[in-house]
Specification:
Pfam families: 4HBT (PF03061). By secondary structure, the protein is of the alpha+beta class. About 25% of the residues lie in helices and about 40% in strands. The protein contains 3 helices and 6 strands, in the order H-H-E-E-H-E-E-E-E. Strand 1 and strand 2 form a beta hairpin.
């Protein structure tokens, strides 16, 4: 793999994130992009809860999936893309907080398959509370019509 320009990678990820209707609907913000690590944050919103008033598992999964996938984007060439092909989520604690942080980190980079691990945290007064973890597998996509950065 050739050397990847970090400024170009950051801009590519920011532009791609801005096109994600799902993340926009959730009120999510891209807050950190570095080599192999991406963080996404979102505020608590009653519209994103399940019947018990806690953050819905689908919202947690979507945010972790995006964080893991974008962490993989920091590892690939600008002319290829990614698609998630598998993930597993463990919900560890109720999603109660003022804000939520979702961090994706590369576990195993690759030229065809990339594996990332994600962690979701509830943020309020006091220390961050781990609410979920994810292991995600992405497929590197080259030359497929309609699938770009």
């Amino acid at each position: 793999m050739s050397e990847i320009n970090s400024d170009t990678v950051h801009e590519r990820i920011r532009q791609s994130f801005s096109r994600q209707g799902a993340m926009h609907t959730l009120g999510a913000e891209l807050t950190r992009v570095s080599q192999g690590v991406v963080e996404i944050e979102l505020p608590f919103d009653e519209k994103l809860t399940q019947q018990h008033g806690i953050l819905h598992a689908g919202v947690i999964s979507a945010a972790l999936d995006s964080a893991c996938t974008y962490s993989a984007y920091t590892m690939i060439e600008p002319d290829v893309s990614l698609l998630t092909i598998e993930f597993k989520v463990n919900l560890m604690s109720p999603g109660k907080g003022d804000r939520f942080l979702f961090r994706g980190e590369i576990t195993k980079p690759g030229s065809t398959i990339i594996v990332a691990d994600g962690r979701g945290y509830a943020l309020s007064d006091g220390p961050a509370k781990l609410i979920a973890s994810m292991t995600s597998t992405m497929m590197v996509v080259r030359g497929r019509e309609g699938i770009t950065g």
